[in-house]
Structure formats: C-alpha cells, structure tokens
Specification:
It contains 17 helices and 16 strands. It is α+β, with helices and mostly antiparallel strands. The protein has a single domain, classed as Cytochrome p450. It has a six-stranded mixed sheet. A three-stranded mixed sheet has the order 1-11-10, with no helix packed on it. Helix 13 runs parallel beside helix 17. The chain is globular.
Length: about 400
C-alpha cells in the first residue's frame, strides 16, 4: 500500500476564479483520465471516479468537515459557528440518525408531491411578467424567487418575506466557502443571527397556532416517544432554508443554460413535458451544482491500495464522477431520453448525509421544466452566463435569456 502523499498526481487550484463553465469540466476530465485521484491545491485531494467518490461519501471513517471550515478561518464562536455546529451536515452517529428519523417523514416523495400545486401556482405568478417573450434576466425573474417563495410557504412564513428569506439563504450558504468566510464574515454572521431570530418568532407563533407547514410538523415530530427541542427545530429550519433555496435556484438556472445550448432537447421537452422527471435526472448528472463535497478522514482509510491518513481532506467530485465513462455510456452527451442505468448521480451526495430535501428539489425542478418548456419556445442565451466559482454551490449570478 502507498501513502497518498507519496503519489505523483495531477494538480490544479480549484479556487481559481477562471475555473468555471467548460474550463472547469475540462480540468477535472483531464485529471480523471490520468487516474481516480488528483491534488486539490493547496489543501487536499480530489476523488474523481464515481465508485471511489461514492465510497468516501458513504464510509463512516470520514465525515463532513463542518466547523473545521470555520476553524481554519479563525471562527470558533458567534452566530455562524453556532448555526453550523447544529447543522445536520456537521452531525454524525446517533445524534444524526435520531434527527433524520424525526424529520424524514416531511421529505418523502408523497410529502413533496403534496406541494406540487403550490409550485405550479408560484411558477404561473412569476412567469406572467415575462410571458410575452423577448429578452429577460432569468435569475431575478424566475430561478431565484421560485424556490424562495416555495420555502416561505413550506415554512409557514408570509410569501411577502420570500425575498428576505432568499437573501438570507444566499448569504448563509457562504459559510461553506472559505473565500467568503475570509472576506464577508460580518455579513454572513449578521444574516445567520437575523434568520435565527426570525425562525424563533415563527416557532413561537406556531406553538400557539399550529398550521399545515413545516415548522408545525417539526414541532409535532415524534418517533418512539422522542421529540425535537426548540433549538433543534431552529437548526433544522435553518438547514432547510439554506439547502432548499440556493441549491434549487442554481440547478434550475443551469438547466436553462443547458437547454439553451441544446435546443433540440428543449423542443423535445416542450412537446413531451412528461419527460420532465427524466430530464431532471440528466441535468443533475450533467451539471451538478454541488460539484465537490468535502470529507475528512476520522482514522486511517485504505482504498484501492492507497492509504489516507487520519485528518486527510478529500473532495468527492460529483462534477467528474457523474461523467465517469466506467459508470455511464457516452457521459459527455446531454440527452434527456438516455437510459443511464442504475448509477445514480452523486449530486445529492450518498450515504448517511444524502440530501434530506432531494425529493422536494426534484419535484420543484420537474414542475418548473414541465411548465416552462411549452411556454418558452426557441430558448436562447443572449450573453455568456455569469457563474460563481464551484466552491460550495455552483451558483449562476446572471443569466440573460430570450424566447419567442
């Protein structure tokens, strides 16, 4: 067996601001062609092949680094620290299993399906101002407000608060981006503190007047006599807000970019909107908005003859694993009708930390594509999309589209 530090591996700086779009995909594909590992300069290693990435996401010998991300930036207290310390991503073992068991019923496929009428209602409302066609900025008009309005309704918050919830989510998500933590710590901590206070007010209101909303469900959640504490409800609600807004808005924006670049696929979806579920799976595979997911080894781990010492930082690269030719036929082809077999994309992760809101995200994306494709013919990119770096959520900041 060989220590990972002794291997000669390709390397690139994943924080390079120029590594977005096709150059990002080219870099990871070139590295994967040389092997299943690469150096993530300057602090860890990329795991590039699907089978290997799934192993490190599932193994109990590695965990999400969580608060370590903040510790590296000198953040060991305050609202950002407290919020991440109670996040499901930062929990393991019995505590993590207990919380997942209590909240899982609210995120099953049938639970997500119950919200589909609300999804269609919000889509119709947002589409009305642009329904005449022509050029428009899609992130402001559609992709950002849609999941924010949905999460407000899910939480039992006024829809009028959706913009504020979306702004908080976009800021708080920066806790997973070391560059943002270093440069925008004050605004991140202010957003975390404001949202926690807002959540406490909603919880207090729902204690007195329960409704058909997620916070009421969490307050009433019970399994084998166990219930959630108020602090746990606060942490879970915060996790759901951030996980349910940033991810869906980014994935929907990338979906529109993909379809604008593949007009034959958009035309097909417009003619056959029943293909939306299959289209969503192909989008999740082809352009994951969580391109890399961090893990840190809790003890020495051996895989494929390579030893990873305790404390090794690894990045399971869905951006590469989802296009692994060993797992998918013609992986570089975007095709919403392709039969991709049993290998599921790693966009939502794998193992005990598999994304809690995956069913809700899939439903929101399916409804959006089925609604938009027949109404937005001849979808076109009017300018190059402006994307964030693939650190954390691979967000789309500006997306100028047109349609007839």
């Amino acid at each position: 067996m060989t220590a990972v530090a002794d291997l000669e591996l390709p390397a690139f700086d994943y924080s390079d601001p120029d590594l977005t779009g096709q150059p990002w995909h080219d870099a990871v594909r070139t590295a994967r062609e040389r092997g299943w590992l690469a150096r993530a300069e300057p602090i860890g290693f990329f795991v590039l092949e699907r089978e290997a990435a799934a192993f490190f996401l599932r193994t109990p010998k590695a965990t999400f680094p969580g608060t370590m991300i903040l510790e590296l930036q000198g953040v060991t207290e305050g609202p950002l620290w407290e919020r991440l310390k109670g996040n499901l991503l930062d929990l393991d073992g019995d505590t993590h299993r207990r919380l997942r068991k209590l909240v899982q019923p609210a995120f099953t496929p049938p639970a997500a399906d119950r919200h589909r009428p609300a999804m269609r209602r919000h889509l119709a409302h947002l589409f009305e101002p642009v329904a005449g066609g022509g050029e428009f900025e899609a992130t402001a008009a559609l992709t950002k407000p849609y999941p924010a309005r949905m999460i407000a309704e899910l939480m039992g918050a006024p829809v009028a608060d959706a913009d504020r919830l979306g702004a908080w989510a976009n800021l708080i998500q920066g806790q997973f981006d070391p560059i943002k933590v270093a440069n925008e710590r004050e605004s991140l901590e202010r957003a975390a503190a404001e949202f926690v206070e807002y959540t406490r007010q909603l919880i207090a209101a729902r204690h007195d007047d329960p409704g058909d909303d997620l916070i009421s469900v969490l307050i009433a959640a019970e399994a084998e006599g166990d219930t959630l504490s108020e602090e746990e409800v606060v942490h879970l609600t915060s996790s759901i807000l951030v996980g349910g807004v940033d991810t869906t808005q980014a994935q929907l924006a990338h979906a529109l970019i993909l379809f604008a670049r593949h007009p034959d696929q958009w035309k097909l979806l417009a003619e056959r909107p029943e293909l939306a579920p299959q289209a969503v799976e192909e989008i999740l595979r082809f352009e994951p908005i969580t391109p890399i997911t961090a893990r840190i080894t809790l003890e020495d781990v051996e895989y494929d003859g390579v030893v990873f010492p305790k404390g090794t930082l690894l990045f399971a690269a869905a951006v590469s694993a989802n296009r692994d030719p060993a797992a998918y036929e013609e992986p570089e082809r975007f095709d919403i009708t392709a039969e991709r077999g049993r290998a599921k994309p790693l966009t939502f992760g794998a193992g005990p930390h598999f994304c809690l809101g995956a069913n809700l995200a899939r439903a929101e994306l399916q409804e959006a594509l089925a609604f938009l494709a027949p109404r937005m013919r001849d979808l076109r990119l009017e300018a190059a999309p402006v994307c964030h770096t693939p650190l954390g959520i691979y967000a789309v900041n500006e997306l100028q589209l047109s349609f007839s």
